[in-house]
Backbone:
């Protein structure tokens, strides 16, 4: 995670987060908005929303609770004293990705289940697919052919900045454990489909947007975030080439992408 840190004066602050020990019992949460089925749940709050994180290790009481303002400018993370140490950082899973998802959901961009590769021309090639589609395999194919920059083999952020679409690496990697804080102008998006031959096929914009949305990570309990994400994807598929990549996991993938450039 430290590779993704920036200097305190490198740009404006998106969210001011205060970390505090959980000194007293918390009031009961409000309306349940979302249950991850795992560690965390999201609840409505009077002036924003709340994330409770649970673990069997710590019993029924949350081991950390995050309170967010509606405009996402302020947050407080309350951590139980027995977990307030260097081994369990307050921003550890799931809060790091939940926070980024909410910030992106305010029109800043979209996180996609994808593998991002920077080619020899410094352009971003994005390979999108669900688990098992071949993202990590695709990353390994490119690495076997040369020293390519892999910004992530599982989750990549796409944003429109300074007049161009760019992809950004995240620390949330996949099986190949590849991640980088690098970014690059986005040249093309490839929807992964494993096949017996490698070829690129045209995809209608509506289908492309639907496929990308199925691989996105907006906070689904936030109507504003959903609308913003759909708007971003609608514009993205209109301005960046999106094709279906039917592929065999070998160097024919690289040849196919280069021939389409």
Residues:
């Amino acid at each position: 995670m430290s590779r993704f840190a920036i200097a305190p004066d490198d740009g404006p602050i998106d969210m001011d987060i205060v970390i505090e020990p959980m000194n007293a019992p918390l009031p009961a949460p409000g309306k349940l908005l979302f249950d991850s089925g795992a560690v965390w749940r999201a609840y409505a709050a009077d002036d924003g929303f709340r994330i409770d994180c649970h673990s069997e290790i710590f019993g029924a009481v949350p081991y950390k609770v995050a309170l967010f303002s509606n405009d996402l400018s302020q947050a407080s993370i309350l951590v139980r004293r027995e977990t307030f140490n260097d081994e369990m950082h307050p921003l550890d899973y799931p809060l790091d990705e939940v926070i980024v998802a909410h910030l992106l959901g305010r029109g800043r961009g979209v996180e996609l289940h994808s593998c991002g590769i920077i080619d020899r021309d410094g352009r971003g090639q994005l390979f999108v697919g669900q688990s098992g589609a071949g993202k990590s395999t695709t990353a390994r194919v490119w690495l076997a052919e040369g020293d390519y920059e892999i910004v992530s083999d599982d989750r990549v952020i796409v944003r429109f900045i300074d007049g161009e679409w760019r992809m950004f690496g995240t620390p949330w990697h996949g099986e190949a454990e590849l991640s980088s804080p690098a970014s690059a102008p986005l040249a093309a998006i490839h929807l992964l489909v494993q096949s017996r031959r490698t070829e690129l096929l045209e995809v209608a914009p509506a289908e492309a947007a639907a496929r990308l949305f199925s691989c996105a990570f907006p906070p689904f309990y936030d109507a504003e975030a959903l609308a913003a994400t759909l708007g971003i994807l609608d514009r993205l598929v209109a301005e960046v080439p999106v094709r279906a990549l039917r592929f065999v996991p070998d160097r024919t993938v690289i040849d196919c992408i280069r021939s389409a450039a």
In short: The two ends are 33 Å apart (CA to CA). The helical segments are 95-108, 135-145, 205-213, 223-239, 252-260. Residues 223-239 form the longest helix (17 residues). The first strand starts at residue 16 and ends at 21.
